[in-house]
Design a protein that fits this description.
Order of helices and strands: EEEHEEEHEHEHHHHHHEHEHH
CATH topology: Rossmann fold
CATH superfamily: Alpha/Beta hydrolase fold, catalytic domain
CATH architecture: 3-Layer(aba) Sandwich
Number of helices: 12
Helix content: 40-55%
Largest sheet: 8 strands, mixed
Structural class: alpha/beta
Number of domains: 1
Distance between the termini: 29 Å
Number of strands: 10
Shape: globular
Length: 301
């Protein structure tokens, strides 16, 4: 894995790396990880993609080796060195990075919430973004705008839930439990149905950032994110091509929702399903996903 670099952004440190074997195309690729992950989650993809285009990977604020500032929730005073963990701010991190560091047209590739961030960042980048690839994109079923789809008990209990998760003592304890090795292994068994590539390297790259002092802050901010962007609303007016890559057995983001997106949004060029895998097909079956990503890269004009 390539060496990490640090980019200063809005008084925060953003960790990133680059692999570059070829300058065949005047376009770069930026890989955006999902919630709880980091740039190293693209360990089986970045070097392969770098054979066709300069390939960057980045740690979102709150994750990996990037700064982990105190979460500022809606209604909290705007204090120095705090951060609103939301899709707009993460997308601004990505778009500014593309403009200030990459400085070429870019193809954005995002897994899980990284997909929603990629879509929003593409809007901010305008003509500097030539496409988006969503790998098991977060569908955000618990967003307030989708509450109509939830059972009645979820609707009436929503105010209580919002009040509870604002309590930092609760979110910190929830995070510490979720970040334990036993829970991480349990979650990975769900996320990777085949068990392929669930190894010590994966456990280490997920667990190490969770041990940092500020690690609970992104969790605290994210679980309080009840009303933010949904992928469909971002794709409504998108003019650039969007390609979908989905795990057939994704336990959290239903394949049927991706199929519905493909039918309803003209910007979506393709939907490729990876048989037998779950929420992280790029890591569970990197050979198949790399072939698809290379095909997208080569299609950039």
């Amino acid at each position: 894995m390539s060496e990490s670099h640090i980019w200063k952004w809005n008084n925060f440190e953003v960790a990133w790396n680059l692999e570059k074997q070829s300058s065949e195309l005047p376009v770069s690729v930026l890989l955006i990880h999902g919630f709880g992950a980091c740039k190293e989650h693209w360990r089986h993809n970045q070097s392969e993609l770098a054979n066709f285009s300069p390939c960057f990977a980045i740690d979102l604020i709150g994750f990996g080796e990037s700064s982990q500032p105190i979460a500022r929730l809606i209604g909290d005073p705007a204090e120095q060195n705090t951060f609103e963990y939301n899709f707009d701010n993460w997308a601004r991190q990505i778009s500014d990075f593309c403009n200030e560091v990459i400085k070429t047209p870019v193809l954005l590739v995002g897994n899980s919430i990284g997909g929603v961030i990629a879509l929003r960042a593409s809007q901010l980048l305008g003509s500097n973004c030539c496409g988006v690839v969503l790998v098991g994109c977060a569908t955000r079923a618990l967003d307030d705008k989708r509450l109509v789809e939830q059972p009645s008990w979820a609707k009436w209990s929503r105010p209580l839930l919002k009040g509870l998760v604002r309590q930092r003592w609760l979110s910190v304890n929830l995070f510490r439990n979720a970040a334990s090795p036993a829970v991480i292994k349990k979650v990975l068994k769900q996320a990777y149905p085949t068990g392929k590539n669930v190894d010590n390297e994966l456990l280490a790259l997920l667990q190490k950032p969770s041990q940092r002092k500020g690690a609970p802050e992104a969790f605290h901010g994210f679980i309080n994110l009840f009303d933010d962007y949904l992928a469909p609303e971002l794709m409504k007016s998108l003019q650039i091509p969007v390609d979908l890559i989905w795990g057939e057995k994704d336990p959290w983001e239903p394949l049927k929702e991706a199929m519905s997106w493909k039918e309803n949004f003209s910007c979506i060029r393709s939907l490729e399903t990876i048989a037998g895998v779950g929420h992280c097909p790029h890591d569970e079956d990197p050979e198949s996903v790399n072939q698809l990503l290379i095909k997208v890269i080569q299609a950039v004009k």
